[in-house]
Amino acid sequence: MKPRLHLTRWTVRAALCVVLCGALHGGPSRAAESDAVRIRELEQSFRCLVCQNEALADSSADLAADLRGKIAEQVANGATDAQVRDYMVRRYGDFVLYKPPFKPLTWLLWLGPFLLLCAGALVLARVVARRRAMRPPQLSADERRRADALLNRTSEDCGP
Fold first, then answer.
1. What's its job (predicted)?
2. What's the confidence (pLDDT) of residue 26?
3. Can you give the pTM of this predicted structure?
4. Are 76 and 35 in contact (CB under 8 A)?
């Protein structure tokens, strides 16, 4: 009986150690959770270079998976958000950013839609102004009399 009692005590101690280690570890650390959130936010701020209309986080393209891995690797190595963005921009240009910076190189990108809207409004205003200017000329009194005479003669010829 003594060996069995020894085995039971050992089993209880081992189970207690496992439970205590699990309690001390407590699952993923807050640092790991905050890194995961940070990585997800970074992935959302980049455009998938293959899909072009999807965030890197939502894309299923192989390149997107590689870039997500690169972002996670850089965050794990202690890179700041700015350093990760700088790396991506150096490598792929401002196009990789969903919100490109407002600088001389991207002025057309930011101001282009507004300029096109203004140009369209200007063209529309010119067309409307030309149509207003193209009203039919007024008939002189003599021309009006002749037109009335023609209209009256035509209506008499048709009869009831």
1. Possible subunit of a heme lyase.
2. 53
3. 0.52
4. yes
